[in-house]
Design goal:
This protein is mainly alpha-helical and 161 residues long. It is 71% helix and 6% strand. It has one domain. Strands 1-2-3 form a three-stranded antiparallel β-sheet, with helices on one face. Helix 1 packs antiparallel against helix 4, helix 4 packs antiparallel against helix 5 and helix 4 runs parallel beside helix 6. It starts with a helix and ends in a 7-residue tail after the last helix. The model has no long low-confidence stretch (mean pLDDT 93).
């Protein structure tokens, strides 16, 4: 179990360095790129739902509100935790790769759903925004990642000794 914790910590530190260490971000800005893609997707989906929204940088302007989507909103921190967990467990790389892809798709799809819901909440029920932003949707995303990890562990057998 100690080896598992060490492997998890090493992988998590490695992934966070890739995401946050400025010399690496100067070469390839994964955070900024993912945030930009997320903004494009959310804006397009809101337009598809006939919501009047205009994107300006990291901000989405709606009829009576402005909504910022920054690097902390892109789901990559949660994905890094999920990824470090998958990588820490022993197992075949093909299985790990499948669950890495599935996890990315599910976590980002849930995150897009979260951002679209929050854009409606901030526009129509502003007094509930903080609860849904900081509590409800955070818990939902974390529970989704934990559920995916349980599915991964259920579909793989491990010898943790």
């Amino acid at each position: 179990m100690k080896k598992l914790a060490v492997r998890f910590s090493v992988w998590l530190i490695f992934l966070l360095v890739i995401l946050y260490y400025q010399p690496i971000r100067d070469i390839i800005d994964i955070q900024g790129g993912m945030t930009d893609i997320l903004l494009q997707i959310v804006t397009s989906l809101l337009h598809f739902m006939h919501v009047e929204v205009m994107r300006q940088g990291l901000f989405l302007h709606q009829a009576s509100s402005i909504f910022e989507i920054n690097d902390a909103c892109n789901g990559l921190i949660l994905y890094a935790l999920y990824l470090a967990s998958i990588l820490a467990f022993p197992g075949k790389w093909t299985g790990k790769l499948i669950w890495m892809i599935v996890g990315f798709i599910v976590i980002e799809a849930m995150n897009i759903f979260r951002l679209i819901c929050l854009s409606f909440i901030i526009e129509h029920w502003y007094s509930y925004f903080n609860f849904f932003h900081y509590v409800f949707f955070q818990a939902l995303l974390i529970a989704s990642a934990i559920f995916l990890l349980f599915l991964y562990m259920k579909n793989n057998t491990f010898n943790l000794r």
